[in-house]
């Protein structure tokens, strides 16, 4: 009976070793599959990123002309307004200076209104 028991124990030990090998292989397989999935996802992300970047560049190129046209229109409008302001300045400069000098030089001395009320 002891020979049978030792043979049974030996069979169990061999089965346990075989099971440990199978578990180890399954772990290695799982790790490899995770690595493969990660690398595949990275590739897909890069491809998607490149596609979106190209799409953005195309959009930017198609709308860049509009920006330069708008800038030119704004520059032209600014020049017109600046010229108008400069013309108005040159036209009214002498009159404004004369009004300021008249106010400073031509003084009409008179009593303050509160002083007039106090004397009455």
UniProtKB/TrEMBL annotation:
Keyword annotations from UniProtKB, A to Z: Coiled coil, Hydrogen ion transport, Ion transport, Transport
GO annotation, cellular component aspect: vacuolar proton-transporting V-type ATPase, V1 domain
Coiled-coil boundaries: 12-54
InterPro entries registered for this protein in UniProt: V-ATPase_G
Gene3D superfamilies noted in UniProt: 1.20.5.2950
GO molecular function: ATP hydrolysis activity; proton-transporting ATPase activity, rotational mechanism
Function in brief: Subunit of the V1 complex of vacuolar(H+)-ATPase (V-ATPase), a multisubunit enzyme composed of a peripheral complex (V1) that hydrolyzes ATP and a membrane integral complex (V0) that translocates protons. V-ATPase is responsible for acidifying and maintaining the pH of intracellular compartments and in some cell types, is targeted to the plasma membrane, where it is responsible for acidifying the extracellular environment.
Quaternary structure (record): V-ATPase is a heteromultimeric enzyme made up of two complexes: the ATP-hydrolytic V1 complex and the proton translocation V0 complex.
Family: Belongs to the V-ATPase G subunit family.
Name by which UniProt lists this protein: V-type proton ATPase subunit G
């Amino acid at each position: 009976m002891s020979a049978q028991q030792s043979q049974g124990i030996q069979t169990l030990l061999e089965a346990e070793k075989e099971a440990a090998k199978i578990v180890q292989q399954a772990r290695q397989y799982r790790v490899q599959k995770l690595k493969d999935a990660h690398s595949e996802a990275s590739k897909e992300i890069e491809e998607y990123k490149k596609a979106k970047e190209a799409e953005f560049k195309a959009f930017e190129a198609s709308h860049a002309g509009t920006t330069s046209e708008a800038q030119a229109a704004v520059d032209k409008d600014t020049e017109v307004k600046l010229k108008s302001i400069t013309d108005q300045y040159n036209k009214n400069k002498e009159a404004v200076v004369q009004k300021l000098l008249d106010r400073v030089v031509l003084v009409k001395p008179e009593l303050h209104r509160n002083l007039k009320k106090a004397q009455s």
